């Protein structure tokens, strides 16, 4: 009874979760994708990932030790997570010095400039990735081919780039290839099934909730499907087997087109990686479920606008960073009512 009468400041609900445990769980969730990527592209994947992680950890340690002159926090695994996510946004053939430069921008500019973990308004790994994409577009878009497989349709381009360049349609790249990772691309966009395994693990560990990832992917799928349906010309519809083109046949063809476009854009590129591991970052996402849904819808819409009508074949990184900037506004206008307020 005596313990119940103790008055103490918030928070009153305690949990076994800690920053170190959360970050370690994120690293574990990324391991299936790392394994698949290593099988697809070879040992260069481990080289890039190890270099990125070591660079992020060392840079953060040096800044805290000699510039901030405070307690070092590299033991909380946040720098490791940034390093792995940055590596997952890079091609396996990228030169080592570009990896180090990306790690410097991610940690020194995007994270430590704002005060470190929990104070950064933008996802550090994405800031590093976008900087490298703008500064070194050739190296960042030179994709190595998988060790095994034939890619006459893609001609060395990623599925998104192939569709963007008119080399193939969304239905030309098989769902199996995008799920299992037998396609060109960056380290983290070649195996959607492995990323989904990581998603299930994070849900099981209660590190994240399903609202942001599912809303991002659903928005992308619906948007892609509607655009694909609107682009279909009824005059050019193929005839049915009996030589007719009934209303039911037209409707089935339209929905088939929408389905292929939607599933393609969900599985291709960095959609899975961004929606599951980057849009859910605690520091850069809204605090409420309703705010998270608004945040996720914005990411999905911006991503699809860039993919379909922008200069880049992929827009996930830009979309997340743009919506990161909107998080303070979302938090201000979308928040729960105080207890007792009508």
Automatic annotation (TrEMBL):
Its main location: membrane. It is found in: Cell membrane. Part of a membrane-bound complex that couples electron transfer with translocation of ions across the membrane. Its EC number is 7.-.-.-. The modification FMN phosphoryl threonine is found at residue 158. The chain crosses the membrane at residues 26-46, 94-114, 126-145, 186-204, 216-237, 257-279, 291-310, 316-334. InterPro entries: NqrB/RnfD, RnfD_bac. One of its GO terms (cellular component) is plasma membrane. It is an enzyme of class 7 (translocase). The complex is composed of six subunits: RnfA, RnfB, RnfC, RnfD, RnfE and RnfG. Keywords: Cell membrane, Electron transport, Flavoprotein, FMN, Membrane, Phosphoprotein, Translocase, Transmembrane, Transmembrane helix, Transport. GO terms for biological process: electron transport chain; transmembrane transport. The gene is rnfD. Its cofactor is FMN. It is a multi-pass membrane protein. Belongs to the NqrB/RnfD family. The lineage of its organism: Bacteria, Pseudomonadati, Bacteroidota, Bacteroidia, Bacteroidales. This is Ion-translocating oxidoreductase complex subunit D.
